[in-house]
Predict the 3D structure of the following.
Amino acid sequence: MKRPLFIIIGAVIVLVLIGVWVYIVFFGQTTTNQDTYANLGIGDTTDPSYVAPSENGEEKTPVIDVATNQRLRQLTTRPVAGYREVKTDSTETVLLYYTEKGTGHIYSIDLQSGEEKRVSATTIPLSYRSTITPNGLFTLVQSNNGTNARFTLGTISTTSDILITEPIDEKIIAFTSTLDNKFLYAVKTNNSVIAKEFNPVSKTIKDLFTVPFREAAIVWGNTATSSHLFYPKASAELEGFVYQVKNSKSTRLPIDGYGVSVYGTDTSLIYSKKVTNAYKSYLFSTTTPEAIESPIDIIPEKCATLPESVTVVLCAGSTKKLDGTMPDSWYKGIVPLVDDLWSINTTTGTLELLSAVTNETGRQIDISNLLFNHNGSRLYFTDSSSHNLWLFELTSLNNQ
Amino acid sequence: MRILFSLFIILFLLSATPAVAQFNSNQFTTPESGIDLQPKFPHPGEIVTATINDYRSSSFGSDLIWVLDGKIVPGTKNKRTITFTAGELGASQAIEVVLTKGEGQNEKLKAVIKPIYLDIIVEPQTRTPDFYIGRALPSMGSVVNATALISGDNTPVSDLVYTWRIGQNVIEGAAIRGQNQVSYTTPMSNKEILSVEIAKIDGTIIAKRFVLIPSVEPVIQFYELSPLFGISNKVISDSIPLIGNSTIIKAEPYYLDSRVYNNPAIIEWKLGGIVTSNQSKNPYEITLERTWAGGSTGLEFHVRDTKQVLQGAKGSTRINF
């Protein structure tokens, strides 16, 4: 390259730089003083995008869509450990309380206004599962799992966002809250499981019944005096048997089979089991001698009963046939299911599609943890993948 | 003296009872008669088949009438086999067959059933994660606890004698009073018969049951673990995309003997085929950090016992960066 060419290029660069400098000096405008820091890429630091919550943790804008009259709505984007529609003494408004998975923070959602408020800011790390009493005053939280599982009784304050906590030093394997604001839980012993009733006000514990083996699944009744069901945890490769407890007396029901699991009330039940390499569901009523085959095959853990009804069970499922690996493959998370909501009459076997969930939401939801409100007008459930909470309003359905 | 002694010996021998007297000669000449039931110990509502077992010459040509709880069973005249439905739990039923001989003489054969449930609840002591709400399965060498539960008979457990068998072997060597729970080690076969026979103290057998118990191989499944939310309940099937800077993967060896799970002889993770030193406190968890390079790498996990080498499992998945 020739020397003059270098000189010309150099001169052009110098002129451009002089031009930029002149522009900045004479035409540049001041901006707000904003500090800039180098990003050293050292991983997670304090999140600069954090927005401090408003007073009392209240978010002014509705978090759920209340403008539209959708009967099926997603209520949370947070994963949920447990929930319950509550009615406190202080207000006539019916609120939904839920516990956030991981933190144990408790939030309330006003279903009329759609506003969400943090009721408890007390962190219970690794919160995994919880239940809340219908009066909204107490919660029982499981944090962590397996041998590291810890259980905490929480008293929810009406005046502050501090949860008064108290550890429960028992090996709890299952728990729930009752309609009369108590807790039922089951603990493992060396060769049995003991079901107990716990009054969170008086802190008294009463033994309800004993399961004479350890690997038990329990279907709790609405209160301690209701009937409860228990059975050996289901496996497609092992035989199971269903027992009902009434007034502390256990009775063997004529329900057994490989992979059997059950859901139901005092008089009507839905159960499923493996039958010649297929997974089949049956409806059983104590008033009729024989079980009838269910029109669809569902996993009973995906069912809930209407509080006032003895014959109608609402279940999540599909018309797709399930194979003989069920329910193990669903329990393991190997086979996710795509569910709709169905109403099944356990006496007549009548089936009604309540919601084609995938069509209605555009989402494929593997529904679990179904729970009705006190009068059966609202059904809550979670998506087992995201653990987000959903609401299905049955009154909207009735109005249509 | 010698004569006296010989006489004494002869008298002693003559006083001995002949061995043949211990047999009932009628057993050879007269066949045993009765009603055979199948199943012998039915459940409530179960279909029971009753068959007359009578091949005596004296009953040849007799009319047969079947009577259930005092009522003639219609359509069963002169049938040697009938079926009927077992009644309610714990309620005794009498099934009779009336033999009317040519001379008008009647003879009754009778059997009594008491429908009960005898459930064998099998509880394998193998590993499943806490979120898994199903029952574990036995694997070779693992301990299985079994419980026999009777419904429909009010005899206390302490007054019953249990004979447990796994295959042909009697567990604990003999029948044991009051032992409705036993433990045994899973033998080396895909399926094994576990049976229990329950008798009252007087020796009357009140129930008998057997179940086929599978023995499976332990299997590894991988799950993503969140430090905040805990273990995901959705399995990582073929691969997992590493979206953030890091992720924690947990290997769950389903059906591994709990003793091996808690104290494994071999436990190793391989990343891209190379054994990695796992810094995690829990050896079943591994933390993977993103490198600048993109692509995909294999993740393998191996856990095994060295004494019982079939107690172990290997599993693999892929991590996409």
The radius of gyration of chain B is 32 Å. Chain B has three domains: 32-113, 117-214, 219-320.
